[in-house]
Design a protein that fits this description.
This protein is an alpha/beta fold. The protein has one domain: Rossmann fold (3-Layer(aba) Sandwich), CATH 3.40.50.1010. Helix content is 54%, strand content 14%. The longest helix is centred in the middle third of the chain and has 14 residues. It is globular and about 35 Å long.
């Protein structure tokens, strides 16, 4: 948990998986994320995520007709003062294409990374170890915490 202390004063882009693990109280990863949430609660770090995260987290609850869970995700991501939701734009689209070409990424991953870069995040928190090959932003996984 030493890395959490290193995140003090930093802007952290939250990828989809960490949010799912936190909101759905994953037995292993939720406690790791709790320490980060406490840091945010003390106004010692900043969280951002993109509208792509919302699109991704809603898929399974909608498919499984879990309306309450879908509403919970939407409320947390769009109504929370803890997470700044950012839009995508033309500059992000161009960076997305560059990242996809350079690292052979899936479009949603590249959009997320491009958004983090565009909005000057210090770290990109994910659970996708494959993204650690990207050099334009510091990638941290939940296991790194």
């Amino acid at each position: 948990m030493g890395l959490v202390k290193d995140l003090t004063g930093k802007k952290i882009f939250l990828d989809t998986a960490p949010l799912i693990y936190y909101i759905e109280d994953h037995p292993y990863f939720a406690p790791l994320l709790n320490e980060l949430i406490l840091l945010k609660g003390k106004e010692k770090c900043q969280f951002i995520s993109s509208v792509i995260t919302l699109a991704e987290v809603l898929v399974l609850p909608i498919r499984e007709k879990k309306t309450d869970l879908a509403q919970k995700y939407e409320a947390i991501l769009t109504g929370s003062k803890s997470i700044e939701m950012v839009d995508i734009n033309v500059k992000i689209a161009k960076t997305t294409a560059q990242l996809r070409a350079k690292y052979i990424l899936k479009t949603p991953d590249a959009i997320q990374l491009a958004s983090a870069i565009h909005y000057s995040a210090d770290y990109f928190l994910t659970n996708d170890k494959h993204l650690k090959t990207v050099g334009e932003i510091k990638i941290i996984t939940l296991e790194d915490l």
